[in-house]
């Protein structure tokens, strides 16, 4: 997106003038006036005929001052001409004359005379412009309301834009009224000398447009104004006539300056640096800053411009953590760009890095806000890594020397400098004794030696190998234990899948229904499932009693991850409703082998307290019971219709170890075939009286 243009008028003198010119779009002349006034610009130019002076009949509007301003009249984004905007200041001149007889005899004023005194003033202001070879005259019609008509007082101004003119031309401007009541105002002005440089930004490009007459020759140079040090040339060209130079926005830096001069002997050179406070230029300077290695142990910060920076050495561990500054003992040092610096190291090491803190100079946020901000950026290079190899897992020991030759050693770690032989739970503390022996035996490399202390780099390879041997042994032992656990779990899952327990509870309505339940239990036993049903446990049921037998079977089934299946029939529904209405009903009233009636005292609390899901499953036979007949309390668990929902029923019984759907469908077909004879016999048996309808519910 285009940004406002900045025109820099570079006068070829020792004191260049920098102008910021406003842009006016379109070829039409316009006029505007200050608040309270109304003005109109006549179409086309008029004849420049001032005429003779005439006396004012009363208060009239006259021009009292002229001011000019240079602007740009642009027809396209890059096609602009210099233009002169004229500001005409207006005031009321003259007074109304009072009749002598009124003052002498006190005669009342005639209303016909009072009316024009309270009317607004109107004037035709002529503006004449001459700049060789151009001459123009325009007519402005200005009207002032009666409230602003005060003799001798300024009423405002009218602005005309604009008269086009050539660079370096001398312009003359006159202003008067028609008719003319006073001597015309005049103004002579010399437009800026050549050249005019236009710096504009469009997207990622920066355009330098130099407006030079075709017969003039100038030199243009772009250079980096480095402080300290001489200017560093970057680009130079001799120009004839107007030229446009395109730069990429990444080429901008704060010290990039432009110098223009006339190609003649002893000409004065004019320079300007327009990007000193450009945020993009400062960001580019940060990106351009580079650290260079200078053998044997020196380095240099290369940058096109000077910038405030501080540098120090730091120790970079191979684990990728932050580089730890070596302050103390080595202090921070101010950096001068493009100047070699050397730290007093005895030996080089790949883990020694240079850390730079770059500062951005304060920038004004906005013209109306006198607020400045500092920004900073960290730059880090491990300069000797290329020549000395990759980072090493060495331990850096910092030796501190005090009075009376007192010495202490600590190891530089991410948590800080850990004293050797301390009780801290760090690697350096655990290896404090061996590291101290390595320093005394000369196995550590001395990197720096000064009055305040020294730096030692101790290899950790032998300790790492020993540690990794223990780690490998621990990993192998852990892998063996995990493998054994997986085998045990796999065998347990297989065993559970082959023999998941299922406890069937039903109401012994009649012999036909008991045969149907026995057929279902036998079919489930072939899946395989470990099925428990009172039909197969008559001896234990008689010996223990229904309630004790049910408690034992239920506890064992649930402990093994099994499921309790409630087979609903008209008799079972009636028993459930009796228990829901009167919980004190005696379980023995329904026969010695009726485990369903005995189990209700334990089943109902599980459903009432929300413990049933995942432990119980309901089922009923299609032609014996309708879906709505199952009490609402028991619908908190899945309830299946048999044999229509046999695949879903079998999948729920087998749980996580259920086979694929196609395998379930095959098993459901087997169970359905096994149930069909018992179903047919049950419904052909006389006196069953069990079908879907009201008669099934009358038993309650």
TrEMBL record:
Positions of the SEFIR domain: 499-651
UniProt GO cellular component terms: plasma membrane
Membrane topology type: Single-pass type I membrane protein
Signal peptide: 1-20
Entry superkingdom: Eukaryota
Protein's name in the database: Interleukin-17 receptor C
Listed GO biological process terms: inflammatory response
Alphabetically ordered keywords of this record: Cell membrane, Disulfide bond, Glycoprotein, Inflammatory response, Membrane, Receptor, Signal, Transmembrane, Transmembrane helix
Subunit structure: Homodimer; disulfide-linked. Heterodimer with IL17RA. Heterodimerization with IL17RA is independent of the cytoplasmic tail. Associates with non-glycosylated IL17RA constitutively. Binding of IL17A and IL17F induces association with glycosylated IL17RA. Forms complexes with 2:1 binding stoichiometry: two receptor chains for one interleukin molecule. IL17A homodimer preferentially drives the formation of IL17RA-IL17RC heterodimeric receptor complex, whereas IL17F homodimer forms predominantly complexes with IL17RC homodimer.
PROSITE patterns for this protein: SEFIR (PS51534)
Native organism taxonomy: Eukaryota, Metazoa, Chordata, Craniata, Vertebrata
Cell membrane keyword on record: yes
Subcellular location(s) of the protein: Cell membrane
Primary location: membrane
Example GO molecular function: interleukin-17 receptor activity
Record keyword Zinc present: no
TM stretches of this protein: 468-488
């Amino acid at each position: 997106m285009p940004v406002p243009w900045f025109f820099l008028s570079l006068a070829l003198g020792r004191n260049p003038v920098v102008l910021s010119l406003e842009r006016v779009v379109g070829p039409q002349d316009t006029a505007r006036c200050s608040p309270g006034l109304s003005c109109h610009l006549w179409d086309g130019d008029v004849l420049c005929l001032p005429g003779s002076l005439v006396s004012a009949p009363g208060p009239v509007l006259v021009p009292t001052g002229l001011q000019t301003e240079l602007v740009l009249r642009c027809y396209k984004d890059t096609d602009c001409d210099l233009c002169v905007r004229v500001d005409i200041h207006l005031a009321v001149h003259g007074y109304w004359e009072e009749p002598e007889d009124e003052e002498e005899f006190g005669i009342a004023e005639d209303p016909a005379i009072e009316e024009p005194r309270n009317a607004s003033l109107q004037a035709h202001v002529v503006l004449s412009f001459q700049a060789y070879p151009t001459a123009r005259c325009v007519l402005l019609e200005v009207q002032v309301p009666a409230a602003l008509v005060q003799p001798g007082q300024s009423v405002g101004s009218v602005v005309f834009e604009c008269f086009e003119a050539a660079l370096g031309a001398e312009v003359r401007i006159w202003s008067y009224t028609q008719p003319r009541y006073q001597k015309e105002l005049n103004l002579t002005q010399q437009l800026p000398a050549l050249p005019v440089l236009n710096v504009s930004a469009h997207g990622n490009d920066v355009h330098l447009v130099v407006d030079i007459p075709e017969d003039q020759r100038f030199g243009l140079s772009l250079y980096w104004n480095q402080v300290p040090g001489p200017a560093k040339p970057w680009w130079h060209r001799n120009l004839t006539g107007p030229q446009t130079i395109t730069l990429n926005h990444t080429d901008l830096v704060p010290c990039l300056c432009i110098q223009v001069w006339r190609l003649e002997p002893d000409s004065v050179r004019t320079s300007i640096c327009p990007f000193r406070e450009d945020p993009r230029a400062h960001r580019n300077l940060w990106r351009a800053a580079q650290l260079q290695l200078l053998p044997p142990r020196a380095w240099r910060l290369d940058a096109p411009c000077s910038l405030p920076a501080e540098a120090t050495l730091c120790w970079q561990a191979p684990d990728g953590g932050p580089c730890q500054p070596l302050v103390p003992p080595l202090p921070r040092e101010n950096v001068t760009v493009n100047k070699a610096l050397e730290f007093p190291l005895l030996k080089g090491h790949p883990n020694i890095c240079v850390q730079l803190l770059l500062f951005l100079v304060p920038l004004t946020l906005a013209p109306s806000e006198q607020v400045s901000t500092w920004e900073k950026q960290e730059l880090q290079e491990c300069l000797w890594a290329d020549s000395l190899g990759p980072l090493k897992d060495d331990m850096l020991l910092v030796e501190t020397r005090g009075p009376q030759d007192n010495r202490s050693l600590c190891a530089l770690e991410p948590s800080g400098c850990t004293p050797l032989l301390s009780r801290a739970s760090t690697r350096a503390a655990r290896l404090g004794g061996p590291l101290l022996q390595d320093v005394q035996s000369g196995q550590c490399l001395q990197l720096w030696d000064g009055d305040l202390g020294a730096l030692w780099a101790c290899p950790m390879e032998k300790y790492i190998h020993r540690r990794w041997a223990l780690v490998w042994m621990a990993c192998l032992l852990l892998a063996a234990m995990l493998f054994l656990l997986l085998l045990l779990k796999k065998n347990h899952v297989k065993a559970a899948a082959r023999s998941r327990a299922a406890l069937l509870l039903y109401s012994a309505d009649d012999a036909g229904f008991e045969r149907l339940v026995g057929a279902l239990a036998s079919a489930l036993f072939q899946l395989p499932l470990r099925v428990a049903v009172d039909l197969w446990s008559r001896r234990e049921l008689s010996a223990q009693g229904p309630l004790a037998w049910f408690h034992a079977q239920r506890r064992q089934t649930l402990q093994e991850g099994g499921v309790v299946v409630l087979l609903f029939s008209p008799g079972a529904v009636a028993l459930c409703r009796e228990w829901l209405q009167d919980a004190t009903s005696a379980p023995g009233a329904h026969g010695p082998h009726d485990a369903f009636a005995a189990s209700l005292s334990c089943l109902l609390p599980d459903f009432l307290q929300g413990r049933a899901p995942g432990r119980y499953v309901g089922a009923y036979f299609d032609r014996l019971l309708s879906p709505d007949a199952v009490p609402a309390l028991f619908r908190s668990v899945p309830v299946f219709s048999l044999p229509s929902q046999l695949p879903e029923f079998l999948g729920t019984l087998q749980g996580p170890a259920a086979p694929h759907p196609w395998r379930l469908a095959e098993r459901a077909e087997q169970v359905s075939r096994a149930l069909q004879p018992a179903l047919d016999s049950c419904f052909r048996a006389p006196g069953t009286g069990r079908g879907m309808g009201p008669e099934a519910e009358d038993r309650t």
